[in-house]
Amino acid sequence: MPLSRTAFLFDLDGTLVDSVYQHVLAWHEALQGEGISLPVWQIHRKIGMSGGLFTNMLLREIGVEITTDRLDRMRALHAAAFRRLGTSVRPLPGAVELLRFLTDRGVPWAIATSGRMETAAPSIASLGVDPTEVPVVTRDQVQYAKPDPDLFLAAADRLGHPIEDAFVVGDSIWDVLAARRAKALAIGLLTGGYGEDELERSGAFRVFDSPADLLNHIDEVGVRR
Fold this sequence. Notes:
Shape: globular
Number of domains: 2
């Protein structure tokens, strides 16, 4: 049985590792590879949702024909670009310390990411996380990714913890929407480029600057020091 009544379900990109803008540039490169030119800010607004939904929305908005082959090519181009750009990805300030703190206090936690393992694995390794010891749920393992709740529901199930007693920690409105649909409480972080007001309007009950800021105020979300 868990030593804590609380569990934490973490998004990965922009929440635990500083990788949002590498993903933005990787998608920008993938789109250009298909002859599609979009400003990077427009791409950024959709980072955090599933790759399939992300590309569907972008292509629909600009009136480009969507085909399975085109989506597959774009996913492959994105993965290749991110593997190259991702060498600069590092844990966000306080991320490693926060995970260590929760482990030391017996608070269960898991990672749930819309990324596939092929792009997520290096970021997970940079945190010192072993997926054979800590539940890590990726896009490969669920039917639908964010803003659907499947990733967080699967992560809670892997922990054997009621989703209603879990905090979802994420940096995007897509994380918060998925948390609400899963019936979990959402904590927002500003490390992905979304503003405090956006995260709160989406349903985050608390917003912190970074993993370090969350750790500094961990007692405010019911975890005793």
